[in-house]
Every structure is written in C-alpha cells, then in structure tokens.
Amino acid sequence: MSDLDVQIPNAFDPFAEANAEDSGAGTKEYVHIRVQQRNGRKSLTTVQGLKKEFSYNKILKDLKKDFCCNGTVVQDPELGQVIQLQGDQRKNVSTFLVQAGIVKKEHIKIHGF
Amino acid sequence: MVGTISTIAEEFTARTKSALATVRTKCLMAPSMVSISVSSATQGLLGRATIGTTLLVAPNNTGPCWLRVYSNEIELLMAEEDTTVELKEEALEISTFDPTKKKKKKKVSIQDSTDEPVDKLVEKTENLSVSDVSESSFAGLKKKKKKQVEAILSNDDAGAGEDGDDPIGDEEEGEGIVLQSQLPRYPWEGTDQDYVYEELLGRVFSILRENNPELAGDRRRTVMRPPQVLREGTKKTVFVNFMDLCKTMHRQPEHVMTFLLAEMGTSGSLDGQQRLVVKGRFAPKNFEGILRRYVNEYVICNGCKSSDTILSKENRLFFLRCEQCGSGRSVAPIKAGFRARVGRRNAGA
C-alpha cells in the first residue's frame, strides 16, 4: 500500500487556451501563407486573408521589390483578393508582414511542407 | 480534510463538502471487486475506475479531481464541491470477509504513527514489505494479500476475530501499516521533522514509478514510423505507409488525407493498395512535417499530451475527446484555402 498520490497539475496553464482562443477569435482572422508546387523546382506563394483595408497593390509592390520576384493580386470569387508571388517566399512574407506591422505574428499561419 | 463518508452495507458513498477536499475511505473488500463511479452535483457522472487504478477526472470547467484507488482504500483529491464517490461491488461474493468489517475512515495525519511502540512497527514492516511487493502486480495476488492482512490483524489485536469488534483499533493499525511500510527505505526514517512539499512529491513519484510506472506521468512519446515515400514517374509521389500511420493515430484516412492535401496544396487520391498518391514532388521530410502538425492539432490532447483521443463530429463541428483524462476540445475544420492556377490554361478558361 503506497501512501497517497497527489498529482499536481504541472506547467499546464489553464488560461492559455482561453487566451489563444481570444486572439484567434474565429479562424477568419488568420493570414494564411501557402506554397504550391509548379513544374520542376518552381513554386508559388499565396497570401490570403489580409485585411480588406490594406491596399493589396501597394503591399505587393513592396513585396516584389524586397524579394526580387514577380507577383500578382488575384481576385478569387470566395476568398476575395489573394497575393501570389513567384517562388517559395513563405518565410520572407511572414517576416515582412510582421515587421511592417500589417499582421501580428500569432495571426499568421504558414502552410505547406 | 473535508468531507464525510458514509457506509451503507456493501456500498460506500463519499461526499465532499467543499472544493479542494480530500476524502479517503477505507474498505476491506477484496481488490478488483468493486467499481467506483464518481459524480458531482453539477456535472453528473465524471468517471469510473476499478481498484488499483488512478482515475483522473477533469470536468470541463471545474478543477480536476483525482481518484486514487488502492487495494483497499479510495482517495479522492481536490474534488469539486459536492462530489460523490460511489463504490459498488461487482463480484457476487466477498468471500471470507464480513461486510460488517468495512469501515469508514478519515485521513490520519502522518505523525500519528511515530507514537507506536517500535517492536510492533518492526513486526509490521516485516509483514508489509511482502505485501508491498505484491502490490506491484495487482492482478492474481488477491488471495495472498488478503491472507496477509488477516494475519496482521490477528497478530496485532489477538482475538479480535472476524467481526472486527474493535474497529477503531483495527483502523489505526491499518494506517500505521501504510505509513510504516515506506519507512525503512528512506532517509527521513525516524526523524520527527515535517516533510517539505518537494520531499513528499518526490517520494510519491518514486513510489509510483516503482509500482506502476505507467501512472508516473512520464511523457510516453507516441512513436510513429517515418513515412515511406516513393516517386511515381516524375510528377507524382506515393505515400506507402499512409494507412499504417492512420491506424496508429486512430484517425480516419479521409480526414488525414484532406489535411495533407490541403496543406500541400495539391490533389491526390488513394490507390488500390490503400496508398496515398499525391501530385507533385515531395520528400519524406515534407510529409513528416505535415503529419507532425496534424498530430499536434488533431490527435494530441492539450491537457495531458496523450495521443489516446477520439475525434468525433457533432453537428458539423469536430471535437477531440481524450480517453486518458476525459477532457475535450473543438478542433478547426480543414479548409483547403486558395489554390492558384498552376499549369497550362486552356483557351476557354
């Protein structure tokens, strides 16, 4: 007969989830950065879910200049405007968006492999 | 300790009066013959356990409550207000033990035992060191253990007989045994000083690790085999052990597939041998990364990190429920997102 066993909840923060949900507040606020494969070793980066107030074309212009790549703004019937960039620019885009203060880091979701 | 325990013939009911209460009840029923169900006033049934297990009950919006069941005592820790613990016998007969022998017992403070005469203690430790060993394997040793307990009882108060005409005395001996059985192994033997919390915690875990390591809370990492990937032609990739991995995760292959395809931004399908064929060129490392994300999001329980979970769909929403700790959470639906037009465009498009 061993004596009593008290399992103390370890480093688990009971409020972490609530806070996370608060900041998440519906998946709609996430900015999704995806990558897509093209032929060969080429790829394509898409940025979806930026706020409507921003001028997509101006952002795109800076992105293009910074990463030395081409890109375009695509009008999607469901998702609104989506920025497309040539090449795998996921890391670049997320750092750019955070540094420019367009999106908070928690709101960026990077997809792909 | 706060709480009362009432005994009704073959049934026990322990009820906590306030939050953070600890209820400890003692019974002399044969091990593994009872089932315990815990319920609270607000939540209803919280969980069940059988003897020899720890039941962690974590209701959604209240503090967790632990129910530790020893071979012949039950402990309810940190329960919510008005939590009821109910014991029911499952077996038909309790064999040699009289139902009248069952006792209710409040927690005895640790210092009590030090007052007892030394020679008795030595005797007890000798007796109990054996039963301590036997505790490590709960199954199959019931009979032996019972006999030992009997022997001890008859040793201590000779002539007490079967009915337990001196229940309080019995209890005290029992508690003494519990405590003394630990002593010879530890440095704080014989000293009068109070235990520090860390000390007690370490002790509990060392005991737990010795006797049933699976409860000690060591993170058993769920090991998954690495994905095996083949190239089909130059433009397609075949994920060979896709089905195996789905089985180890206990997830529907369709669900995993939609997630993989959505993340990779391609299309794909299952072929005749239940392998996943994906359009595009991907390295095993890529699959691994995505599967890792899948496991984090749709398999692992947030509370206890166990992978023993069930994903169920309740009116259009996916919920993850943990089989280990009973907690649940909702998970985000898989959305494919924007897919850019890649490849040749037809004149019409």
Q: For the largest beta sheet of chain B, what order do the strands appear in spatially?
A: 1-2-9-4-5
How many beta-strand segments of chain B?
Answer: 16
Mean pLDDT of chain B: 63
Q: Helix-strand pattern of chain B, N to C?
A: EEEEEEEEEHHHHEEHHEEHEEE
Envelope shape of chain A: elongated
Judged by helices, strands and strand pairing, the structural class of chain B is alpha+beta
How much strand of chain B? 15-25%
Strand content of chain A: 25-35%
Residue share in helices of chain B? 25-40%
The end-to-end span of chain A amounts to 51 Å
GO molecular function, one term (chain B): translation initiation factor activity
Family (chain B): Belongs to the eIF-2-beta/eIF-5 family.
Keywords (chain B): Initiation factor, Protein biosynthesis
Region (Disordered) (chain B): 153-172
Describe the structure.
Chain A: Probably involved in translation. Chain A: One of its GO terms (biological process) is regulation of translation. Chain A: Keywords: Protein biosynthesis, Translation regulation. Chain A: One of its GO terms (molecular function) is mRNA binding. Chain A: It holds the Pfam family SUI1. The complex is a heterodimer of chains A (113) and B (349). With 113 residues, chain A is of the alpha+beta class. Chain A contains 3 helices and 5 strands. In chain A, strands 3-4-2-1-5 form a 5-stranded mixed beta sheet, with helices on one face. Chain A is elongated. Chain B has 349 residues and is of the alpha+beta class. Helices cover 28% and strands 24% of the residues of chain B. Chain B is elongated. Mean pLDDT of chain B is 63; it is low at 1-34, 56-65 and 89-183. Chain A binds chain B through residues 1-10, 12, 17, 27, 32, 34-39, 44, 46, 48, 74, 76, 79, 82, 84, 111-113, and chain B through 24, 54, 56, 64, 66, 68, 70-73, 75, 77, 128, 131-132, 135, 177-179, 181-182, 200-201, 203-204, 207-208, 211, 215, 217, 262-266, 280-283, 285-287, 289-290, 302-303, 329, 332, 335, 337-340, 342-343.
